[in-house]
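Section 3.1: Structural characterization of target chains.
Under the original work plan, the team committed to producing a structural model for every single-chain target entering the pipeline before any wet-lab resources were allocated. The record below documents one such target. The sequence was received from the expression subgroup and is listed exactly as submitted; it comprises 500 residues.
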Amino acid sequence: MAEPILQLQGVSKSFPSVKALDRVDLNVYPGKVMALIGENGAGKSTLMKVLTGIYQRDSGLITYQGAACHFNGPKDSQDQGISIIHQELNLIPELSIAENIFLGREPSRFGKIQWQKLYADVQVLLDRLKIRHNPKTKLGSLSVGEQQMVEIAKAISFDSKVIIMDEPTDALTDTETDNLFDVIHQLRDQGHGIVYISHRLKEIFKICDDVTILRDGKFIAEHPVEELDEDKIIELMVGRALHEQYPTVDAKPGAECLVVGNLCGPGIADVSFSLRSGEILGFSGLMGAGRTELMKILYGDSRAQSGTISLDGTALELKSPADALASGIAYVSEDRKKDGLIIELSVGANMSLSSLAEFCSPLGIVDQKREWAAVQSYVDLFAIKTPSQSQLIKNLSGGNQQKVAIAKGVMKRPKILILDEPTRGVDVGARAEIYHLINKFKREGMAIILVSSDMPEVLGMSDRINVMCMGKISGEFSKEQANQESLMAAALGKTLEEVA
């Protein structure tokens, strides 16, 4: 085996009351892809921040290209040949694609930017990633997935020897993901060392050569991927075997509670369906199919142009999310940081935000004792890992942030709970906990809409599945009828025979 181009040995990092890293090792080899995996809170993000100079390690050794090194900050590590593609986009929507990629590094002569050279250099990068946009295109006009590909192009433009990719496919379509994998193969073949962080285990087997596993801030193991299977990786990650990835509860649906008829609005056309209490109705489809657009209409965040929405036989006119909440419809957004949580507020303030009226006196004064007791009951129910309710939400792991976002919706005790990509960016252990909670609410009679791009998830958890294509429902399947082939055919607007 080749010597590592980058090696971390016995790296530790502590914060007040928390030891985030405890003697962690990591090897990155030239011409190889090293997967870095672990549950949310395992220490992956902290390790990457140490590696890129955002945090300074308390102890341990970092060796880069055969010499001990120390990074004073992100620019220092980047200048030495280490780039990171963050899960959260780090781009400026008002600038063009080209300006974002070479921001602060624009080719210039006599103090003036050489725009033609800039656009030509960026076009080479875009062609390499198969991004079919003009370099002059304003970034804000691109989809989230396309913006992520621009972020990747920006990292590649540094020609770094080590490239760290943190959940790079989280917002990508299947085609964009395939294009990214082609680029990773190219980079690997050119001798780059790549750290690939992902919760999607199937990607690990498809793209990675080796895997490093962290748990509770500790190094657990490094193995060639070919020596492992999914069950073994999960066991190493969580410290126990998960016997069932998608725990199912037999459907015992009650009365029809939500009826949507011929609904039209931004991004959707002529959508009709119904939902029963105690039922999980899945919504599947490709990116841009109209699933989130439909959910935002149901939640009052967008206005319907025509059609009807009825809850328990009463027609609803939803002009705002406040109307939906008052009617008994709660929505958990696919983008928790943009639409679901206020990251500068505490765990408690976020969780109780939609339910504050329930803790107020007739004079509008919040009974903090009752509020705190209610929040604590959900912290316990959801097994949220936080030192206290006062902890800022931004300091929690992604999985625990997602639990807070779901608890915020459930605290309103809604009749209808809409979960839009509820496990995006969440590790397998936290996923299992979320699935068990979803089943608990289902048993208690809550009606649940589950929107998911993860086909095994929507197949494993749903009692019925609606598939959307181009803003319409293109297929409806019972649990017995549904399989990956039938869902994909409907997502493409075709019959199963047409895609066979």
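Residues 174-189 form the longest helix (16 residues).
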